Amino acid sequence: MKIIIAGAGEVGSHLAKMLSNEANDITVIDSNQERLDALRSHTDVVTVEGNPSAIHVLHDADVEHADLFIAVSPSDSQDVNIVSAMLAKKMGCKKVTARINNEEYLAYENKYIFTEMGIDLLFYPEKIAAGEIVELLKRTASTDSLDFARGRLQVAVFKLEEESPMIGMNMAEFSQVAAADGLKFRVVAISRGDTTIIPKFDTKFKYHDLVFIISKREGMDMLMKYLGKRNIEVDKVMILGGSPIAEMVAKQLSKQIDSIKMIEMNKEKCLDLSEKLPSNVIVVNGDGRNSDMLLEENIRDYDAFVAVTNNSETNILACVAAKSLGVERTIAEVENIEYIKLAESMGVDAVINKKLITAGRIFKFTLSSKVRFIKYMSGTNAEVLEYIVAPDTEITRRPLKDMGFPANAIIGGVIRGNESFIAVGDTHIQAYDRVAVFALPQTVKEVDKFFK
């Protein structure tokens, strides 16, 4: 697939690395030659210097023959992204997508305007991240979660702590014990250190493993006793930082809980936020990195602490401090991908990364049209995909145990009409089923062939 990425910032560079690993033909446009040189030094891409909204630059990038154009200049370059995406489509590119920073553009009544312009997808990474944080505050036992078919099937990620009865068991033993309670579930992956494992029957669970489980909704609460986990009720939330993500989280939470406190260092931003946010959101001017300041603001009375400043290190350390002061649930925005494991090892309960969230939305465009969505879950380099099965595809021809499905991928669950069930070896996938697949990156293209 020929893909052009407009913007070599953090999101664009991450996408270039990820998509180039899939044997795509990647061209990156940016007006900053230094950014292009840095990207080209460790990624196999073609680079074009210039403004991506200039027609001659798009010609130089051969946009006429591109399959996908991704406009991801930094969030303050929204107009450039929209104009370059429109031009790319008019010049012959098959699909185009653009990063925006205006929530109004995503309103249902406005989407038609952009469809008419030829833009296939608009995405606002900060809004997506805010939505993820709000969901994580609803399910506090897990470090990440994902619903299929309005929650009839759920994937959740759990970190095994000392009190977990699973530690030391292997997959076969755990399945046998849980089956005695009538539980139907599937462990689809284990993240251990820097390695993601698709488990076998003899795979043993270890302390600090991140365990990825798919289950029917009614089974998830019962599973928690084996994991040594429990959900806590979140009634009071403290937010560090007055970023766009913080503002959107506060607005969404204000409809669900009564007490939200936001701490921001910039006094002018505090005044602006206090005018825009609902009355049950208190905005405090101060340095939330200071433990004494957090104590003055009664942090021990709060159920959750969310750190979403523009600095990953600040967010991690603030969450560690909050945890040490007794807050049960901490969430940090961590944009340095190499810091994600560090944050988890330091006790941060959940991590949000805009680049990974955005990558999942865009990667969907490089796969078959039957993929409904794709998501990268925190703590692993693997992807969760949901397919709608087309008639007479490879996946429908035999039971799963006879399919020769890739070793680094697993089908976790199936939704068929109003029925949902966990996939096993005898499961025979049928046309129009919705199928949840967990796959390591190097296997995704191979998996996709079964559904084409």
Structure description:
This protein has four domains: 2-123, NAD(P)-binding Rossmann-like Domain (Rossmann fold); 141-227, Alpha-Beta Plaits, CATH 3.30.70; 234-352, NAD(P)-binding Rossmann-like Domain (Rossmann fold, 3-Layer(aba) Sandwich), CATH 3.40.50.720; 382-449, Alpha-Beta Plaits (2-Layer Sandwich). It contains 15 helices and 22 strands. It has helices spanning 10-20, 33-40, 55-60, 78-90, 108-117, 125-138, 171-179, 217-227, 244-254, 267-276, 291-296, 312-324, 340-345, 354-363, 444-449, and strands at 2-6, 25-30, 46-49, 68-71, 95-99, 121-123, 144-148, 153-159, 185-192, 195-197, 210-216, 236-240, 259-264, 281-285, 304-307, 329-333, 350-352, 371-376, 383-388, 409-416, 419-422, 434-439. The strands form four sheets. It has a six-stranded parallel sheet with strand order 3-2-1-4-5-6, sandwiched between helices. A six-stranded parallel sheet has the order 14-13-12-15-16-17, sandwiched between helices.
